Amino acid sequence: MRSIYQLLYRLLYNELAWGYDAVSWAVSLGRWDSWRRAALPFVRGNRILEVGFGTGALLPALQDETRRVVGIEPSAAMQRITSARLRRQANPVPRVQGTAQHLPFADAAFDTIVSAFPAPYILDPCTHREFARCLRPGGRTVIVELVLAGSGLLLKLLYRLVFPSTPDTFQRLDEAAHTAGLSSEEHVVGDGSVRPLVIVAEKKAAG
């Protein structure tokens, strides 16, 4: 089952990237965008990086008159879709193609790093070391995942099919952040049987 999921995931980020938004809307019953936007109240500062921006739907929401937003995404297909989206909106956002494990940015470049529904790179300790390097002292990462709040057997089965995280996923994520020197806390937000889990991991402030 996991190998099938990994294949579908690869296709959605590459050959079938054109269908990513429709699939996300369908599996979330139309709540994907609101789940993704759960990150916004936790964003701090004016220098923001979104890692793994996918089809680019969150990038414009991260911007305001004072914020400088940058995005990074490894998929060329997702980059093309995002470029078309932002052109239609006349809302340019600087973007680069690259991976979370090797961020092409200077030390202490960002106040907040955002990653909504990240790929398995989020469990790689290298990712969190790069996050810590690129955050200013007192900066934070904001990671959006999902947790199951309902208790029905059918609901649990459907959740595991669509979001097949392992029981130790969140523990591994917390350990990777802690090893990188980031202290994390979790916030379950919203309502419904499936809810956003916002994980905020902060870098120690200077002094």
UniProtKB/TrEMBL annotation:
<dbReference type="GO" id="GO:0032259">
    <property type="term" value="P:methylation"/>
</dbReference>
<dbReference type="Pfam" id="PF08241">
    <property type="entry name" value="Methyltransf_11"/>
</dbReference>
<feature type="domain" description="Methyltransferase type 11">
    <location>
        <begin position="49"/>
        <end position="143"/>
    </location>
</feature>
<dbReference type="InterPro" id="IPR029063">
    <property type="entry name" value="SAM-dependent_MTases_sf"/>
</dbReference>
<protein>
    <submittedName>
        <fullName>Class I SAM-dependent methyltransferase</fullName>
    </submittedName>
</protein>
<dbReference type="InterPro" id="IPR013216">
    <property type="entry name" value="Methyltransf_11"/>
</dbReference>
<keyword id="KW-0489">Methyltransferase</keyword>
<keyword id="KW-0808">Transferase</keyword>
<dbReference type="GO" id="GO:0008757">
    <property type="term" value="F:S-adenosylmethionine-dependent methyltransferase activity"/>
</dbReference>
